[in-house]
Amino acid sequence: MVLDAAREAAAEAVGCRVDELVFTSSGTRAVHSGIAGALAGRRRVGSHLIVSAVEHSSVLHSAEVHEADGGTVTQVPVDRGGAVDPAAYGDALRADTALACLQSANHEVGTEQPVAAVAGLCREAGVPLLVDAAQSLGWGPVDGGWSLLTASAHKWGGPSGVGLLVVRKGVRFAPQGPADERESGRAAGFENIPAIVAAAASLRAVRAEAAEEALRLRELTERIRARVPQAVPDVEVVGDPCAGCPGSSPSPVSMSTGGPAARAGPGGFLRLVRFVLHEQHADAEPRAAGDGRAE
């Protein structure tokens, strides 16, 4: 059956058992279902949820709903590069912690998070860790003893409308909403089989070229980091310069509202980055008047 074959391919890429993985209608749906089900499955333990300050909006919105329903939420801060300190997650763990969430890599600036270290601390405390792997799964499996994992096919070049939810065996999980016999009861509704097959095929394809493509993209990223701040004095390139997901470009941020970078606007930044990447007229200076073009 094509659906079974797609599930096997996706499970192999994730590094999980076939019966631990279900397909959802989106990555956001996977996050919402994963968090709600894990919290409900551990409600006897407590209602404390831990998230990082830079999680995807789907995680943060789930945390808001949980808090509005009477639960408690601890938001762990990040450093200047966008990474959490594993010790901060360890300090946030409590006897009533039901679930911790951490992205594998940031969706905006690509900073990779110390998932394995955080997972180890959570495991010692008996707390499941849900990992949002949407940004990194196309580049490789997520290391560490995580308990739940979510992802979205469009992040690795697959079709929109397909998400993954993985729940490891032994994790207490109670699906929320009306019961449905499909996808182990964790994702209601009929599966979009053509999109699921395309998602699994595209994941396998990008993984086959991931190592070579990562080298190419890291070289481009380093070029942006080195040359954009030189070209525009009031810009800082944010994100971790060493621990960054290859599929995410660093984000230039204007540090002066009156400087040329601010006056250039988003379009000017894009033209500047194109100039850097293609190394057109390498000795030319970007126009100081702020229109973002290079002469």
CATH topology name of the largest domain: Aspartate Aminotransferase, domain 2
CATH superfamily of the largest domain: Type I PLP-dependent aspartate aminotransferase-like (Major domain)
Write down the Rg: 21 Å
- Unreliable parts: 280-295
Global outline: globular
Strand content: 5-15%
Figure out the total of helices: 8
Distance separating the two termini: 58 Å
Please tell me the overall pLDDT.
Answer: 85
Number of domains: 2
What is the string of helix and strand elements?
HEHEHEHEHEEEHHEEH
Strand order of the largest sheet: 1-7-6-5-4-2-3
How much helicity do the residues have? 25-40%
Provide keyphrases for this structure.
seven-stranded mixed sheet, alpha/beta, Aspartate Aminotransferase, domain 2, 295 residues, two-stranded antiparallel sheet
Please provide a written account of the structure:
- This protein has about 300 residues and is α/β, with parallel strands linked by helices.
- Helices cover about 40% and strands about 15% of the residues.
- Strand 2, helix 3 and strand 3 form a beta-alpha-beta unit.
- Helix 2 packs parallel to helix 3.
- The longest helix is centred in the last third of the chain and has 22 residues.
- The C terminus is likely disordered.
Summarize the structure.
The chain has 295 residues and is of the alpha/beta class.
Per-chain topology:
Elements: H1 2-14, E1 21-24, H2 27-41, E2 48-52, H3 57-68, E3 72-76, H4 86-92, E4 97-103, H5 115-125, E5 129-132, E6 148-152, E7 163-167, H6 193-208, H7 210-231, E8 235-238, E9 251-254, H8 260-278
Parallel strand pairs: 2-3, 2-4, 4-5, 5-6
Antiparallel strand pairs: 1-7, 6-7, 8-9
